[in-house]
Amino acid sequence: MEFDEQNLPVPGLAVWKRVSPTQFRFTLKDSIQPFHDGSPFTSGDVKATLESILKPENASPHRGDLISIQKIETPDSRNIDIFLKSPDSFFPDRLRVGILPRKKIEEKHPFHTQPVGNGPFIFLLWPEEGSLKIKRMFDGQIFEFLYVKDHTVRVLKLLKGEIDMLQNDLPPELVSLLAKDQRVRVIKGKGSNFTYLGFNMEDPVVGRLGVRKAIAHALNREDMIRYVLGGAARPASALLPPEHWAGNQNLIFYSYNPVKAKNFLNQEGFDEQRLPKITYKTSSDPFRVRLATIIQRQLEKVGFEVDVRSYDWGTFYGDIKGGRFQMFSLTWVGITTPDIFHMIFHSESVPPNGANRGRFQNAVADQLIVQAQRADTRETQMDLYRHLQEVLLDQLPYIPLWYEDHFFAGNKNLEGYQLAPDGNYDGLSRISLNRKNKQ
Amino acid sequence: MVRFLFSRVISASIVMLGVSCLVFLLIHLIPGDPVEVMLGETARPVDREALRQALGLNQPIHQQWWGYMKGLLHLDLGVSLHSKRPIFDLLKERFPVTFELTFFSLLVAVGLGFPLGVVAAVNKGTPWDYFAIGISILGVSIPIFWLGPLMILLFSYGLGWFPVSGREGIASIFLPAFTLGFAMSAILSRMVRSSLLEILSEDYIRTARAKGIQEWRVIWYHTLRNAMLPVITVLGLQLGALLGGTVIIEWVFSWPGIGQLTIEAIQKRDYPLVQGCVLMISLTYVLVNTGIDFVYGWLDPRIRLSEEG
User: Fold this and answer.
1) Which residues of A touch B47 (CB under 8 A)?
2) pTM of the predicted structure, to 2 decimals
3) CB B164 to CB A63 under 8 A?
4) Which of A59, A317, A353 faces B50 most closely, judged by CB atoms?
5) Residue B1 — very low, low, confident or very high, per pLDDT cuts 50/70/90?
């Protein structure tokens, strides 16, 4: 499967039909290309790939997505019948994994160092970590990926012409610098990476709804977006952006209103003699620490006492999953399907069973999540997810902050590049170098 | 000499054993779970347990430690949890890269620091002395994570003399080596200066001058060798600092050495790889210091004779 602009699944390698509540038939398209090793792409390869993922001994991170599969049959070389353990109208959404050649799976080919596929690019070389070469099939153009850790060095390499393009992962001030340079073209696009504040719902301070509403009213997100992110984000009201098929365009976020924030705190019994104290954990990324100090200042203005603590990623992540926090900030990246609501907000998804790190327990939300997963039609599912997002905005297990934009910065002679909403590199299949301009 | 060598090898082995145990314990105390990092949050608990079992991470810590020590005795450092590649192979690829950077940095440090220190000592109290002191103050004050990008801005982006980053061609070693070596040259020049000044005030130097020996011979043949002992000590200690400094330089200049490998391994909680990297760095430290001991013996026969009893 692939996904369109609304994140609705569209046929990638195959079309499908639902034969029964627990059976799907996938038919490979006629236009399907053979694998790069020359072997034909057949239903047997799909079966072998999915079964390989489902084997526990292979420890695939994708196994959880496909666990509802009971068995797979291939009546012929173009058709695959997948039987599920229970009805799931939206099973095709989960088939996002790449397909591998059956013969190579049986030979235990080292796909993690020598990938083999049938897409627009063929793997060439991976001589060391931090250097990867692939070749575009239709014209033989070679692309080399270099891992350059330091932001400043990456920008200098682009300006000097040692690299032709870079995408994302730069502080906003460097993006602005590139945008002003005549040698470089910068393209920006709306992203769906969702930045938020998370709370421990079992904490005596932030576990109170009034305190979370006070925080929501105390944050001036527009100023943070304008001055810190350089305008490269848009305010969020929910996990899914409004253009997502399951997104809710009608959500109204809490306005920036310090007076209301103080009122909510007073209602919860806090005042100048008894300040609510919050420990705010974040990663050690300098940009995230900067944001944390700004949020700290905005909260202190309305009467919070905030202690910002930054940790290396492993320690920070361990604390978040272990529930050892009051408030933290993070970003969800690469969200495509609304299954994520179950993983993040259902009461049975507390770690290690999921990502409900804040221990959010809400019967209405649980019911809506389960109903949406079992819905028979896309329209019903849409309504349920929209209602769920209203509940989540009211209860604030997360305070949504923004969706960060994506950007591409490249040699001005590069043409045809299109940014994807999730920041992937699919645009490389169409990019070209205008050599006339270069001369 | 043989007894000297034997005693050094025994003490080095004991140090390595202690380091390997300490590293093993410390890495397991760091918060974070490599299985969580590898499988992500969508994995089911049963899948996490299966992977933990496959990697041996579900065993009691003392069993894991014993398995690790047995592997070490066979020079088997295990396999990286993430890349699945033998750690020995990864270290074999990366160590020469770091060694290259360290070696050239040392050349810069000695090439700059030594003459500066001699000039400062021989011309004490003159503008040359103040110039040398000024350079060394700059060297210890400027952090290398700032100096690195500044060097790139000036010499690579501005003048176009060197590549910005990466390890391609001989020109690419200059900026990282100079950045790392400059800081060390500052400390070395101060050490050479103070050590030389101490020796230059000795009676036998006054005697040599009184006998009419040329000044350059006094410095070269009568002063330098005796002044080297404390300098060699500092050099050995600074080599450790160089190895630590390569982590930052490898980050800034995208130099694919052990420093980068270690940081990535820690971030991913790749326990066996962290252990392998730290062992490698410790072994280098131990070998360097053992080498320094030999150089002492060569420089000062009194040390060699006293060790031999």
Assistant:
1) 56, 59, 63-64
2) 0.84
3) no
4) A59
5) low
Secondary structure of B1-70 as H, E, C letters = CHHHHHHHHHHHHHHHHHHHHHHHHHHHHCCCCHHHHHHCCCCCHHHHHHHHHHCCCCCCHHHHHHHHHH
* CA–CA separation, B278 and B260 (whole Å): 12
**Three-class SS state of B144:** helix
Asked if A171 and A287 count as a contact pair (C-beta separation under 8 A), the reply is yes
Token pair listed for A435 = 């050599």
B43: chain A residues, CB-CB within 8 Å: 61, 63-64
Domains of chain A: 2-106 (3.90.76.10), 150-191+405-437 (3.40.190.10), 194-404 (3.10.105.10)
Chain B residue whose CA is closest to A354:
B41
Q: Is the pLDDT of residue A174 over 90?
A: yes
* Helix, strand, coil percentages for chain A (3-state, nearest 5): 35, 25, 40
pLDDT digits (tens, 9 = 90+) for B163-200: 999 888 899 999 999 999 998 899 899 989 998 888 88
Torsion of CA B52, B53, B54, B60, to 10 degrees: 90
Residues in chain B within 8 Å Cβ distance of A355: 41
Cβ-nearest to B164 among A57, A63, A156: A156
List the structure tokens of B66.
Answer: 């014993």
Nearest Cβ partner for A157 among B47, B164, B260: B164
Give the ipTM. 0.80
Contacting residues for A419 by C-beta, under 8 A, at least 6 apart: A167, A187, A188, A189, A406, A407, A408, A427
Closest CA–CA distance from residue A56 to any residue of chain B (Å): 6
Indicate the DSSP class of residue A347: G
Work out how many CB contacts closer than 8 A connect A with B.
113
Backbone angles phi, psi at B5, to 5 degrees: -60, -45
